[in-house]
Amino acid sequence: MVIKVAIAGPRGKMGREAVSTVIKNAEFLLVGLLDSKKQEETLGDNIPIFTSLTELIEETAPDVLVDLTVPSAVYDHTITALEYGVRPVVGTTGFSDAQLDSIRNLVEEKQIGCIIAPNFSIGAVLMMKFAQTAAKYLPNVEIIEMHHDEKIDAPSGTAIKTAQMIQNTRKEATQGHPQEEEILPGARGANFEGMRIHSVRLPGLIAHQQVLLGGDGQLLTLRHDSFNRGSFMSGVVLSIKEVMCQNKLIYGLEEIIL
Ligand code: NAP
User: Using CA positions, which residue lies closest to atom 11 of ligand 1?
Assistant: First the structure.
């Protein structure tokens, strides 16, 4: 069966890569594109562009909506897609916990698959998993995530997801000196259950993360680098196929590849 795919955010850095990946894949048919503004009627192989998701769905009947847009738009897109029985594959980061809860509830009601993947790169997912295992033995953890300077949300969805996974295995620990004082606000990074997350934004970067786990006289560093956006596309392809077989919310590719 050919899977009919729509992509939101096709002019973006991730969206452009996803459009060409989906067009090249014989198992997929790209039926429509959702953009924030209509600069032209079609893109690529005459794929129609819409600025309204409901119109896109009504006119092209996609099976899957791949969202690679912005934090302010992705929640509405995901809810609308689910309401219409279209399965979301979401790469956009920046969901709040409350938004994730309401998406989970709607997925349960609709009984269709929905994949939210803070990181589509298989190597990054492995880094998160290894960090989760290591934190059982080395509970002092600092995460340094580094991204290009056009990224809007901080910390990254990958860093938050890493911290959430580590939290499942890490014994509660107070990190740093009990009387430590920030001379400049933010110097110690964001506090996630005692772990610290530091966000670097610089031109030239794509998506990089280190998880530092300190112990007596030792430091374990886990590092992953995405050097180009092609690194995310195998995860996008996997998610489009997998979401068709699921009837629940998958939050993080580790739920399907590990
Ligand atoms: P980007 O280059 O800024 O692209 C975002 C695109 O979304 C822009 O073309 C923007 O158009 C469009 N857009 C904004 N609002 C929209 C709306 N309401 N409807 C349709 N399109 C809309 O960003 P990017 O680097 O491609 O990243 C996109 C998202 O993916 C970000 O949240 C990023 O954090 C995430 N990301 C995820 C992964 C992963 O593995 N999961 C990897 C990399 C990035 P305008 O600018 O014209 O408004």
Answer: 36
